Amino acid sequence: MALVVQKYGGTSVADAERIKNVAVRIAQARDKDYQVVVVVSAMGDTTDELVKLACQVSPQSDRRELDVLLSTGETVSSTLLAMVLHEMGYQAISLSGAQAGIRTDALYSRARILKVESKRVVEELERGNIVIVAGFQGITEEMDVTTLGRGGSDTTAVALAANLGAEVCQIYTDVDGVYTADPRLIPEARQLAEMSYEEMLELASYGAKVMHPRAVELGELYNVPILVASSFTRNPGTLIHREVSMEVRNKVRSIAHNLDVAKITVIGIPDHPGIAAAIFQPLAKAGISVDTIVQNASIKNITDLTFTVTKGDLAKAMEVIKPIAASIGAKECISDSKLGEVSIIGTGMQNTPGFAARMFAALSEKGINIQLITTSEIRITCIIDKDSVKDAVRTLHQAFKLEVTES
Amino acid sequence: MALVVQKYGGTSVADAERIKNVAVRIAQARDKDYQVVVVVSAMGDTTDELVKLACQVSPQSDRRELDVLLSTGETVSSTLLAMVLHEMGYQAISLSGAQAGIRTDALYSRARILKVESKRVVEELERGNIVIVAGFQGITEEMDVTTLGRGGSDTTAVALAANLGAEVCQIYTDVDGVYTADPRLIPEARQLAEMSYEEMLELASYGAKVMHPRAVELGELYNVPILVASSFTRNPGTLIHREVSMEVRNKVRSIAHNLDVAKITVIGIPDHPGIAAAIFQPLAKAGISVDTIVQNASIKNITDLTFTVTKGDLAKAMEVIKPIAASIGAKECISDSKLGEVSIIGTGMQNTPGFAARMFAALSEKGINIQLITTSEIRITCIIDKDSVKDAVRTLHQAFKLEVTES
Question: Which of A25, A92, B39, B145 could form a disulfide with A82 if both were Cys (CB 3.0 to 4.6 A apart)?
Fold first, then answer.
């Protein structure tokens, strides 16, 4: 019997009515004779409310305790969904992350899955049960509850799908799938029927909120086809898999954008080995994630170094970087918090020259100034003024003819 | 190092402020160099709210799923309490019922504890941690979560105290301890410094809400001293233990009352073996708990049978009993829902005649009519008109001089 894993996000199970709608979808898959494993997030704002509760009693909550607390959110939604399925006459059972065998390391609040021991899940499937697994949570070797951090429930779903050899991992959310650009910005943006893992990874990393890169990465590693679709509509969604049709390869597939970019430039650094480490190790220790890094060619052994962080991290990053800049003899440290980034993404760019030139020309024609450029094999990202981002997305969407249907 | 188990009820941990107060008490025990194990109930009305949520999606909630759902209430309060203790600079860790080794049978919603495997608790105590255990929950052999039903958290606490060899199990609640009568009814009622297990069992079974009989029974079985005290005051509370001081033995210790009594009488039953079984087996199957049963001496092979149930069960009990009464040739079935009961309790009554006579005389002097009488070795209960209960409690409190200080 074929098996599917379905994952429903917090918006999809926000109240009793929505949980019932989700149950109908699950029942339909079961009626088609699929074995069904469902992964659920916590209802609506539950997680935020639990964090608030923790802050009330302890502003710097212990991470182990916070993880146990937060894990109750997914436990609640998993039991309610099982109850609804019973009510509809279906056999179903809820399992905690621990019961589903999601074994993790002990890095509380951002635990990584070490392995899946799905014995219990398989047993319950063989008994004819729809298995509802509480997402976002796992258990350490010492049997302590952990949570997986951002993108946790998606990751639970893909990990289970990989372990169980599911035909597909369906990620149900509040959007219809992946678009050529954010449809709230570009009304003519088209939904994509399929994407490669690499494309989705770049998209997720460079601004698209549809799925967390971590779960996409896991899907790629174990070759799990991932369908991203809406739990509110019947739209077929976007399939993320390895073999994207040949016809659509040689193209830009989608434009990602991100409005949360701040830039720090350390000016006049005496250039010698170890400078980059001296700057970035303290930032990493302070828990600040650095995105783009650009170092100019050094002139007379003096160089400038620019990097980007999220706006939320800017103040803290400046605090860390200023004394270091002084200690290494840099001239000064400046920052700019009003930046955004726009990226064109497509595996078709890999062996085809000219995409970068077309991108820069299109932006330049509109008078949009490019501050920093970074690239991967299948992505080109320009960091520009935040106020120009919307215009840039629209310009690039037209320049690469993304409104035109593929094939 | 001596060890105490403390249990805090839902009212004691109803909000952040109260959780902080509770933490102060726990810290004081720790400061006195005790090893401390704490058992907590769910915050305030959490359990009721979770039941409501379940009813919204499934009126006849699956019991396994409901247990998992309800267990989250205690998990939440246990983590919050641990966080507060960390905030105060104390080492503390929360454990689920499963982690604390509360192994139960699989009777969901009213599971019985089979054994306690306290390895993890002991390890955490040895690491210097205050161990906060989520009450009311356990785990089956198949690692499924159960809840223990009424009196569950008290039972968790006493079971842990027994297993760990605690010096005392302190049950903190919203009353100061055990009184000679309900102080809301009898302002001059005195708090008792100590009680025997048997007395507390009878009191709990015959109306006093302070503690569930189940936890008292367990305490008696394993000889765990139980202190019942308020989490809101510094009142020393009431100690329930085996060796009650000799001076106070030869007395009535307390008056219990209960306003929730209904009576059913089956009249004119042809008396032959098997009649009682024919009546009470169907009631038990219908889940109706029968309290007092009185059968009159049979005259000419015809007898009457009277029994009491809670008012909530009366309608259902009549439904069950009427066809049975007809089938066994009884004359008729009558009921009365306006009853109450008053009990005098004291181990001193055991070998001392005259208590029953004094009780009946006192009630008769006040013109209170006794409808049914039942007794145990240390208790005499009279079932009377509900409206006379308050008067009866006051009368007996005076008749047995309970307002006079012991010793």
Answer: A92
The whole-angstrom separation of Cα A394 and Cα A367 is: 14
Angle between helices A46-57 and B16-31 (to 10 degrees): 50
Hey, of A17, A83, A87, A143, which one would you mutate to test binding to chain B, going by the most B CBs within 10 A of its CB? A83
Is the ipTM of this structure higher than 0.85? no
Taking contacts as CB-CB distances below 8 angstroms, the residues of chain B near A93 are 64-65
Query: Which pLDDT belongs to residue B206?
Result: 87
| Residue B196 structure tokens | 């025997």
Distance from CA of B300 to the nearest CA of A (A): 54
Largest Cα span, chain B: 78
Shortest distance, CA A102 to any CA of chain B (angstroms): 15
Whether A68 and A136 have beta carbons less than 8 Å apart is answered as: no
Query: Is residue A223 exposed (0-12), middle (13-18) or buried (19+ Cβ within 10 Å)?
Result: exposed
Q: Which helix (H) or strand (E) holds B270?
A: strand B254-270
User: Which domains are seen in chain B, by residue range?
Assistant: 3-174 (3.40.1160.10), 255-399 (3.30.2130.10)
Give per-residue pLDDT as tens, A17-37. 999 999 999 999 999 999 999
* pLDDT in the model for residue A248: 56
Contacts of A19 in chain B (CB under 8 A): 57
HSE, side-chain direction, 13 A CA sphere, residue B403: 12
Closest residue, chain A, to B56 (C-alpha): A16
Mean pLDDT, rounded, for B190-195 = 92
How close is the nearest chain B Cα to the Cα of A297, in Å? Answer: 50
User: Per residue in B245-292, pLDDT tens?
Assistant: 655 555 888 999 999 999 999 999 887 777 888 888 888 888 888 888
Strand partners, A135: none
Residue with tokens 């080995």, as numbered in its chain: A273
What are the pLDDT digits (tens) for A140-172? 999 999 999 888 999 999 999 999 999 999 999
